[in-house]
Specification:
The protein is an alpha+beta fold and 182 residues long. The protein has a domain of 118 residues. It has 5 helices and 5 strands; from the N terminus they run αααββαββαβ. The strands form 2 sheets. It has a 3-stranded antiparallel sheet. A two-stranded antiparallel ribbon has the order 1-2. Strand 1 and strand 2 form a beta hairpin. Helix 3 packs antiparallel against helix 5. It is rod-shaped and about 115 Å long.
Amino acid sequence: MAISLQEQLLKAGLVKEKQLQKSKSDKRKQHRQQLHSKAGVIDETKEAAKLALAQKTERDRELAKEKNKALEVKAIAAQIRQIITLNRQAKNTGDVAYNFVDDKKVKSLYVDTATVAHLSQGRLAIVKLDNQYEIVPQSAALKIQSRDPSFIVVCNEQDKKADGTAEDDPYADYKVPDDLMW
């Protein structure tokens, strides 16, 4: 039969008989106290394990939130890309330069006169996709703006009546010449 550790230590002379008996009685007292007390002896290892598990679940929850947020941003960018590619208009087809500001720099697109008129009236908008500028209808621009306004470069408001004048325009009585270019 195998000899217990206590007996091995006793034979080796590392422990005395009195120390062995004291250890056994302390162990017995602790066991009896656990059985009879209502609160019981708090097991530190179990408490530490519970705390570590709670911390791990909280950390996992935070990582999942970050991952979901990154996936949501990626999905929104894909939606915007799809809206732009499906609704983009022809550009660089005209000989009139349309100037606009992007990141405090003046940029220009060459378009025809009808496109310039639509851009200034707010029927068309300019959006930025992969460091290129695209022309899209205002409805598509509003969809993009609701998802992420940073893609919109130029989107004029369309608050004009059918005859081209604003409702509260003080200069509505004065006609602007057709050949006037800014």
